Amino acid sequence: MRFIPxxxxxxARVLPVGEDWIFEPKFDGYRCQLVVWDGKLRLFTRxxxxxTERFGRSLPERVCETLDCALDGEICxxxxxxxxxxxxxxxxxxxxxxPLTYFAFDLLASSGESVTPxxxxxxxxxxxxxxxxxxxxxxxxxxxxxxGNALAEVLKSxxxxxxxAKDRNSPYQPGARSxxxxxxxxxxxxxxxxxxxxxxxxTGVVKSIVVATMDNGALTLRGSVGTGFSVRQRSELAEFxxxxxxxxxxxxLPPVEGDIRLLPPKLVxxxxxxxxxxxGCVRGASFIGLREDKAAADVQHETISCDQSYKIAQPQAA
Length: 318
Fold this sequence. Notes:
Layout: E1 8-11, E2 21-26, E3 30-37, E4 40-45, H1 52-55, E5 69-76, H2 86-92, E6 101-110, E7 113-114, H3 120-134, E8 139-141, H4 148-157, E9 162-167, E10 177-185, E11 189-199, E12 206-215, E13 218-225, H5 231-242, E14 246-247, E15 261-262, E16 268-272, E17 275-276, E18 282-283, E19 286-290
Parallel strand pairs: 1-10, 6-8
Antiparallel strand pairs: 2-9, 3-4, 3-5, 5-6, 6-7, 9-10, 11-12, 11-15, 11-16, 12-13, 14-15, 16-19, 17-18
């Protein structure tokens, strides 16, 4: 069974209204496809990389050979309150003692056949049956509801990242960023390309990173991030960055204060910030972790994130 490109969600600030929509939590993890074929389980990132060795430790080596299927979901590390924690997930890459949970929200194939043309509602029904048949403790079915406002209020008060809205009648659209799936974030948080870094003059560890987005094929600087790093991360990232960094920034980019060491625009960082300036630069930014599952080409400048508050959906007039 081949990897199926993931359907992606569009940004939104307003929860859609109507019986055609269902709502579920937005998980703070790595998007992964769980494929079961001939009794073997494999985990693939959203870019099709096989990460079974990295994240498959919470899964059994084999299941029933008649359960060929492909699930779409997120692999997460949970904090003490049972909430997905991306920082803890990054730690799990090197610390195998961190338990992992796979949250499945869609079914792409069943009995070896694609079910992507079916409606989301039909796929969800089959997904529940597949997960029940698999019987894997670390694989959980993502619950959904028709009351988006109520779910959003619960998730926001509990500190979750956001809520997903999905058209229950829509087919799965592999590789497409579709308005049939919408992500509504509660936090000012998004992904950026790591364009460079500043070393501490005394210790040489990472003092800050310079972040950017790719806009119309050109790199646009979006400011610096100097907090959120642990002591260990500052040291390890400096060693990692030093292997591929050069001094200075290209002449095509505006000047930046400090000793900047340029990095190839390949790494992606998850960043939380207080606000975006009128020019789209981060202010009060904090480092969450590197996104090893995402390519720099996938990073979009999410201008919507400059307004933290989502809008409550209003009932449609009769």
